[in-house]
Amino acid sequence: MIQKSTAFFKNLPPKQCSKCGEVIHEKHEFYANLCNECMQRQTITKFCRN
Ligand SMILES: [Zn+2]
Asked: Where are the domains of the chain?
């Protein structure tokens, strides 16, 4: 069962940024499907709105 699920994850297509379509290389989990660039822009926008 464990080996099967590992193979399943390896066959998944790479994650893509939902904003610009950039392939996300990060291995850790993302709370949003955004690349680093779009993530930073979003953070900056949030700060500006404060
Ligand atoms: Zn992006």
From this structure: 2-49
